[in-house]
Prior knowledge:
alpha+beta, six-stranded mixed beta sheet
Amino acid sequence: DIPVAVDTIVDAFQVANDPLERYFHSTPDRNDSNLKQASIRLSLALEFAKAIHDQTLWTINGGESIMISALDLKPKKPVDKLIDVVFPFVSEPLLLRSKQQKKRVKEFRQKMKKSIDGSIGDRIDTMLAVSSLVTAPAHQGHGYATRLVQMVTAEADKRGWATWLGSSNVAVNTEFYNSLGFFTVDRIFLGDSDRTWKEPPVPADLMVREPKATSLAEKAGLA
């Protein structure tokens, strides 16, 4: 599924013109070479390979729609912990980010961490998460993304857990996530203090879906 999944995420961000991805990429010192594009695809392939190893990558039709979510919180083996430590040192350099791009990615990570700490806190340890939810443009409109998210929220409901996610394309995605029970608990803005960014600040939402009550039969897996 990996080659198709890579095509899916690259094509989807290009077609949607995702504001966050544009913020990360559109710097005065950016590198738009073919080597840079190839390095991005390789980094994504490694990320998906790791997610397969972690059993957190879910796909429909061999990668036409993808999502990363850990539904099985099994204890990690020493080799898994080693991979977690080593992986960023392998994957990050492949992205060939410029100095300004690294600065913007760091800004996002710091602001989102602060948002999560302030709005979710320790509760995050008993929540499921949805990330990297993307459907290829040619296969959108079939309910694939909805089905993937519902797989996570159904499991969360059985456990009595909430689910959280970060939404970058706020104008496009909010209505979709609202329809699945996710609502914004905090919003961060990127680029408000970046003199090289000439567009309005880019919003990104932290969204949470509270668990729905389930019957005893459903909790027992009998329904």
